[in-house]
Amino acid sequence: MPSDNDLPPMKAQDYSEVEDWPGYFTAVLGKEARETLLAALDLFAQEGRIGGFAIDLAAGEGRDTLELLKRGWQVVATDGHPDAFSHLWPRVPEASKHRLTTVQEDFAEMQVRDCDLVNASFALPFCPPQHFPGLWCKIVASIRPGGRFAGQFFGVRDTWASLPGRSHHSREEVLRLLEGFEIERMREEERVDPPEVRNPKHWQIFHVVARKPNVP
Ligand SMILES: C[S@@+](CC[C@H](N)C(=O)[O-])C[C@H]1O[C@@H](n2cnc3c(N)ncnc32)[C@H](O)[C@@H]1O
Fold it and tell me: Do 80 and 107 form a contact (C-beta atoms < 8 A)?
């Protein structure tokens, strides 16, 4: 019987699998912002829009929040776990602190304020399915015309789709959720972990950036 010491070290995905969020925050601390956020910010910049008001939903230790602040955005960062913010606040430059509000909130009760961007990086799959439709409706309603959604959905072929309390979607379901948006980025990633990973899994991820059209 192999002991825990014989296994490969725990990585971010191992903590995510068991929803050990303090372990996850430590594992990803200091990593760069997500590609979907960077793509959304570039698209705003191409329109001459530098800064705005963003909700960073389930922001975790704050990799994306820090990028938003760096680019001049005002940010409300939410997360269900209080440790998220104790990792984030010490890394926020003094001059940016007035542009950040942190709110400890569960997906079930989340208040999504009117904003230019809802950023939900690797967040929505962890919303229990009974709360997903309500949360998604709030996200859609909160994004102003000309605003964007950036984030990930996990597919139904992803190994974690069988875990209780997770929200996974087929490509068709993702497209249905995004009806009414202009889809600017939709990268489907499907791959299997190499065997040296502690707990190899099949990944199916949709990386999305979508824009709510302006009112005619
Ligand atoms: C995989 S992490 C992603 C964090 C960050 N957005 C990132 O890209 O690294 C998932 C996040 O969802 C949060 N979360 C999990 N369940 C939640 C819930 N029921 N309500 C609110 N947040 C939750 C966790 O605390 C964690 O920060």
Answer: yes
How many whole angstroms from its chain centre is CA 105? 15
* Mean pLDDT (10-residue bins), the chain, 216 residues: 74 96 97 98 96 97 98 98 96 98 96 95 98 98 98 98 98 98 98 90 97 89
How far is the centre of ligand 1, averaged over its atoms, from the C-alpha of 57 (Å)? 8
**Residue 123 Cβ < 6 Å to ligand 1:** yes
Exposure b/e, 14-26, CB count within 10 A at least 16 = b: bbbbeeebebbbe
Give the three-class secondary structure for 151. strand
Q: Is 57 in the pocket of ligand 1 (CB under 6 A)?
A: no
Residues 6+ apart with CB under 8 A from 15: 21, 23, 24, 27
Question: What are the structural domain ranges in the chain?
Answer: 4-211
Beta bridge partners, 192, equal 202
Q: What predicted TM-score, i.e. pTM, was given to this entire model?
A: 0.96
CATH of 4-211, one of 3.90.550.10, 3.40.50.150, 3.40.50.300, 3.40.50.80: 3.40.50.150
Q: Is the CB of 25 under 6 A from ligand 1?
A: no
Q: Which residues contact 142 (CB under 8 A, 6 or more apart)?
A: 55, 112, 113, 114, 115, 118
Question: 24 C-alpha to center of ligand 1: Å?
Answer: 9
For ligand 1, atom 27, name the residue with the nearest CA: 60
